[in-house]
Design goal:
It contains nine helices and ten strands. By secondary structure, it is an alpha/beta fold. The chain has two domains: 130 residues, Nucleotidyltransferase, domain 5 (2-Layer Sandwich); 169 residues, Nucleotidyltransferase, domain 5. The strands form two sheets. It has a five-stranded mixed beta sheet, sandwiched between helices. It has a five-stranded mixed beta sheet with strand order 8-7-6-9-10, with helices on both faces. The relative contact order is 0.18. The structure holds 5'-O-[(R)-(carboxyoxy)(hydroxy)phosphoryl]adenosine and zinc ion. The site of 5'-O-[(R)-(carboxyoxy)(hydroxy)phosphoryl]adenosine (KG4) has 18 residues, from helix 4 and helix 5.
């Protein structure tokens, strides 16, 4: 059992968001995210700039998280950090900071897997949010990953399908770039898609075995299609192009998810990761749920994209199990659960 005044500080720095959150006995007290704007000028995340921005942001972000939680750092019971997967330079900032703070305060350290945290964000206590029942399937869709995960307990997770090339978020971002949209394109494309016709244009869907995904062919199919058009075509058809691309990505995602549901017989399904904020994905999962009689779980918007509340909730369960990490630990760019 966890003591009542147990406060855990969670730190996330795997990509281009510097985030910190405080959790008290499973209840999130603060959740601060500093999104790095510097990458917009380059149309994608520049790893070296990301780690430098984390160094600048981490102290004020942690300070703000403690302040919002109304606690002093001396009250902390443990420090949790994202160990991976992610960009090595970015991960090292959060890892080194957490190790130093844990050492200085003489409190335990907890390492957290970023993808597991995206899924366990569903267990954050929030109004109107119901946690999934085990076992459930998680469609984990972010800028770096696309996975179907069988979740049998907080710590028993098995990837049963995944992308063999680009991730779903990467497909959104790269195709947005082809359409001349600013980075990160996913949320912008989503907004425009809601104004267009999803059946206006047809793009290639991949043929990959088992429960795996592929998104690089879709990107190429959109590229070749656009190259064949007259100048001004994108501007004149932007909403329809966005709607058609989004429709295709959602169809690809749901086709394999449906297969996974049939194969496993598991009828509790959640979505997680940045792309779970997408309106097409959210509507698609809801309709699939109604059609197949599923219990579906959609994360609150603030817990879709990278945040530290998801690190803190995962750490909460690890703390209960006393699954601490030695100070000699290190970041892992390709971390497994
Ligand atoms: O989980 P996340 O914040 O970071 C990673 O772990 O990668 O996911 C970021 C990804 C980006 O590719 C971003 O474009 C995408 O999530 N994303 C969206 C939407 N909101 C974020 N993609 C489509 N529609 C959205 N509304
Ligand atoms: Zn993420």
């Amino acid at each position: 059992m966890i003591e009542k005044n147990c406060y855990i500080l969670g730190i996330e720095s795997s990509c281009d968001d510097t985030a910190a959150a405080v959790i008290n006995n499973g209840v999130i007290l603060s959740n601060v995210v500093a999104t790095q704007k510097i990458h917009e000028a380059y149309g994608g995340v520049v790893p070296e700039l990301a780690s430098r921005a984390h160094q600048q942001n981490i102290v004020p972000v942690v300070h703000q998280a403690l302040q919002q939680a109304n606690i002093d750092k001396k009250q902390l019971s443990a420090i949790a950090f994202t160990r991976g997967p992610g960009l090595m330079g970015s991960l090292l900032v959060g890892t080194s900071f957490s190790k130093s703070l844990a050492f200085g305060l003489d409190i335990p350290l907890l390492d957290v897997n970023h993808m597991q945290a995206h899924i366990l964000a569903h267990f954050i206590k929030a109004e109107g949010q119901k946690a999934p029942n085990f076992p459930f399937l998680a469609l984990t869709i972010s800028g770096g990953h696309t996975q179907i995960v069988r979740v049998s307990s907080y710590f028993d997770l098995e990837v049963i399908g995944q992308t063999i090339d680009d991730a779903a978020g990467e497909a959104f971002d790269k195709i947005s770039k082809l359409l001349g949209l600013p980075y990160p394109g996913g949320p912008v494309l989503d907004k425009l898609a809601q104004l267009g016709n999803p059946k206006a244009f047809e793009f290639a869907k991949p043929m990959v075995p088992e429960l795996n995904y592929s998104f690089s062919g879709l990107k190429t199919s959109v590229l070749y299609f656009l190259q064949k058009q007259e100048p001004g075509f994108i501007e004149a058809n932007l909403n329809d192009l966005c709607a058609s691309v989004q429709y295709t990505i959602v169809e690809i995602l749901l086709y394999k998810l449906k297969k996974a549901i049939q194969q496993t017989g598991i009828k509790h399904v959640c979505i997680a990761g940045g792309v779970s904020a997408n309106s097409g994905v959210r509507n698609g999962i809801e309709s699939l749920g109604q059609k197949l009689g599923l219990k579906t779980y959609l994360p609150a918007f603030q817990y879709c994209t990278d945040n530290a509340a998801m690190i803190a909730i995962t750490a909460h369960y690890k703390y209960i199990n006393q699954a601490f990490e030695p100070l000699s630990t290190s970041a892992h760019a390709r971390s497994n659960w």
